[in-house]
């Protein structure tokens, strides 16, 4: 199975802290110290006032010995051969009002499916439903009176507003028009189409698309298909028959939210791509910090960051605070590799046997105590 590509190692200039700490200078300095489960025979240690949500970087080290004795395989050595379906996840650079999440499934040089969602800030007093943990510590990273929401989770409301503004199609009409046009085409074919047509011509060529953002989103799909930084692969009987499913949730504490995009063939998970988002001090993001989107941050020195894009700094925090032995990227990869080829019910059985506050021994290479939460997020997506 193909591992995610190498992440560019860029250390942040200043230490990364959680949004809760960044937005409350009156909290104790030790508030975000992690709780570490040292072994099965030792009690879990917690800092004062941190019983409910101990940390956003907690990791158990109880599997450390078993990892070292597992034929001393590295993550790359234990991976299987690359499958015939590859999921590419990317966060294209944008100066707009939305934070796009794009996942593209390729087989060979062709795009076989794609997924698009955009996160955007809205008036908190509106009818928009915020992303998970918006009413908890994650919400402290947002300027007062604003709320971060998924457009797909608010598709009907967003589409109604677009129609009131003169739009002729729904949000999903536009997303589906982009995806349907890309499916079955090679990257070269799509790049030629984009380079040889003006934006209005692109919109006219995509049946059902009317949004002005359509050409930009199509470009994002192509860019993502070419991006090998965050990839995972699996094997399908017929790659053209896979279906991408999506869910957002709170698999790990109250300081972040995550999403999963799952490639299904029948009831079998072919591949799954997961990531989490958190407000990070001095975090790295391709979204322009001077964009309209960034105007809704609670503070100037924080950004909404992908944990994958901030893997090095975030994992350093995990190591320093929680004695972590694996990076967040390595943990996500281990979970993704575990579910590939399994049925939904097989993953459910593993979740049912999981013990709260412990890593799951069966998920080789995953040491996070909330591994079951990420598995559940994948199941939630697969069952949508």
What this model shows, in words?
It is a single chain. This protein is of the alpha+beta class. The chain has helices at 19-22, 64-69, 155-164, 171-182, 187-195, 199-205, 214-226, 311-322, 328-339, 344-353, 371-382; strands at residues 85-90, 98-107, 110-123, 146-150, 230-234, 243-249, 256-265, 268-281, 302-306. The strands form two sheets. Strands 4-3-2-1-5 form a five-stranded antiparallel sheet, with helices on both faces. A four-stranded antiparallel sheet has the order 6-7-8-9, with helices on one face. Helix 4 crosses helix 7 and helix 5 runs antiparallel to helix 7. The longest helix is centred in the middle third of the chain and has 13 residues, at 214-226. It is globular. It starts with 18 loop residues before the first helix and ends with a helix.
Compact overview of the structure:
The chain is an alpha+beta fold and 384 residues long. Helices cover 28% and strands 20% of the residues.
- Mind describing the biggest β-sheet? 5 strands, antiparallel
What topology, given as strand order, has the largest sheet?
4-3-2-1-5
Outline the low-pLDDT stretches.
1-80
End-to-end span in angstroms? 25 Å
Elements, N to C (H/E): HHEEEEHHHHHEEEEEHHHH
Q: What share of the residues does DSSP label as strand, in percent?
A: 15-25%
Based on Cα principal axes, name the global outline.
globular
Please state the structural category: alpha+beta
Share of helix among residues?
A: 25-40%
Total count of strands: 9
């Amino acid at each position: 199975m193909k591992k995610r590509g190498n992440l560019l190692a860029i250390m942040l200039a200043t230490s990364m802290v959680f949004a809760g700490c960044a937005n409350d200078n009156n909290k104790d300095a030790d508030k975000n110290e992690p709780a570490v489960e040292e072994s099965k025979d030792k009690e879990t240690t917690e800092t004062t006032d941190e019983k409910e949500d101990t940390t956003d970087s907690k990791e158990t080290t109880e599997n450390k010995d078993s990892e070292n004795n597992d034929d001393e395989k590295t993550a790359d050595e234990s991976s299987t051969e690359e499958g015939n379906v590859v999921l590419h996840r990317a966060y294209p650079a944008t100066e707009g009002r939305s934070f796009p999440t794009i996942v593209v499934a390729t087989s060979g040089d062709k795009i076989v499916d794609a997924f698009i969602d955009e996160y955007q800030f809205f008036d908190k007093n509106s009818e928009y439903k915020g992303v998970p943990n918006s009413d908890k510590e994650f919400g402290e990273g947002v300027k007062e009176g604003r709320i971060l929401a998924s457009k797909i989770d608010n598709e009907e409301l967003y589409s109604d507003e677009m129609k009131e503004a003169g739009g002729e199609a729904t949000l999903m009409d536009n997303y589906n028009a982009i995806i349907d046009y890309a499916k079955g085409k090679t990257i070269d074919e799509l790049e030629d189409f984009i380079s040889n047509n003006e934006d209005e011509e692109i919109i006219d060529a995509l049946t059902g698309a009317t949004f002005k953002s359509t050409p930009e989103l199509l470009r994002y799909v192509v860019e993502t298909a070419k991006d090998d930084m965050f990839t995972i692969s699996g094997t399908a009987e017929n790659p053209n028959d896979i279906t991408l499913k999506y869910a957002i949730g709170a698999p790990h504490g109250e300081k972040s939210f995550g999403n999963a995009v799952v490639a299904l063939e029948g009831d079998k998970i072919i591949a799954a791509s997961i990531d989490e988002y958190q407000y990070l001090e001095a975090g790295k993001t391709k979204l322009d910090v001077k964009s309209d989107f960034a105007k809704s941050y609670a503070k100037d020195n924080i950004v909404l960051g992908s944990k994958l894009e901030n893997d090095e700094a975030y994992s350093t925090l995990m190591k320093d605070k929680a004695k972590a032995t694996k990076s967040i990227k390595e943990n996500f990869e281990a979970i993704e590799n575990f579910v590939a080829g399994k049925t939904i019910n097989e993953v459910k059985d593993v979740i049912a046997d999981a013990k709260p506050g412990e890593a799951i021994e069966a998920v080789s290479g995953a040491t996070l105590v909330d591994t079951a939460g990420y598995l559940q997020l994948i199941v939630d997506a697969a069952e949508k």
